Amino acid sequence: MNILEDLQWRGAINQQTDVEGLAETINEHPIALYCGVDPTGDSMHIGHLIPFMIMERFARAGHHPYIVIGGATGSIGDPSGRKTERQLQTKQQVQKNVEALTAQMKKLFGDNSNTHIVNNYDWTKDMTLLDFLRDYGKLFNVNTMLNKEVVASRLSQGISFTEFTYQILQAYDFLHLHDQYDVQLEIGGADQWGNITAGIDLIHKLRGLDTKVYGLTIPLMLKSDGTKFGKTAGGAVWLDPKKTSPYEFYQFWFNQDDRDVIKYLKYFTFLDQEEIEKLAAAVEKEPWKRAAQRRLAEEVTKFVHGPAAVENAERIAKLLFTGNVQELSTEEVSQAFNNVPTTEINATPVNVVDLLIEMNVDSSKRQAREDVQNGAITINGTKVTDVDATIDPVAHFDGQYVIVRRGKKKHFLARVK
Which residues span the membrane (predicted)? Predict the structure, then answer.
């Protein structure tokens, strides 16, 4: 199975500009290809992973991916997928984000010598306005640009000249990469089709209609219930461990619906067809074991955060399941309880009932006493049944945290001031 057949099996191809031409070119020799990401923030989220996982598949198949960090295009703002104008960031913020995303990409793909990371600011910064208008603007027909879906969808609300010209800048990226590195394929999300075809048109106008360049987009990722993939109650799932802890990241994948897990195994892991089909059978026969979800969580967490993060996430999950939270390290507590109800308390010893009120575990002292007497309260892994018990907030977790569990699953966290 070649790379394109593998992508088809995985359901990872939405549109192609020339199906037969790309297949023939790839069969003839390894190609260079590219995908870009704009530095609109200082971290990618899991939605960004999809095209870059495809880039990694090409790299493992012997091809040469170029990852473009949009230092230039990120200063302008891509109108794709938006109903209103983007708020322009300062040059300093863009540069900060460029550095953060570059480091993130190096962590993900740095071990593969086939993969190259470049910044489109490097080949646009010296272009003058007159150069831009004479050499490239003249080659773009406004009527054609207006018919591109990304622009047409914005006409009723309005679109600035700045964002209108975005597709020219992205097209120029493709031209430059083709001339400089013989890049023949651009990959992007479904909303990038207009920008990708603009680049192909530009290359054909300047380098000839017989120039072999291609475009490929990936499908829009939706969950089985029709909602957008990658969002949680807490917001986006980030690749930056400071924004989404490795434990939370692991749990996101582990908690996927049976209806979605095989699709995600195809998209987000490098497992082969045989293993994924075995996991699909396990979902049908023994869904309660969640073997497919566990494998998904292991593979994606390992790719993004490394093997040690997988071990750590599984250790945290085991300790939480058994209730042995006292064995967690301070760092593991910060990961495991990042999204539970959290309060701040003083470091002085406090009566258990007063602690439950202060941490908003219970709304009244009467209820707090009943919970303690009924054995419903566990503090730092130890069940407390005496309403006169005194709790020392600095006795565990380097004096930084107190963990309260009410019942079997409801957790509360206090940070000690």
Answer: none
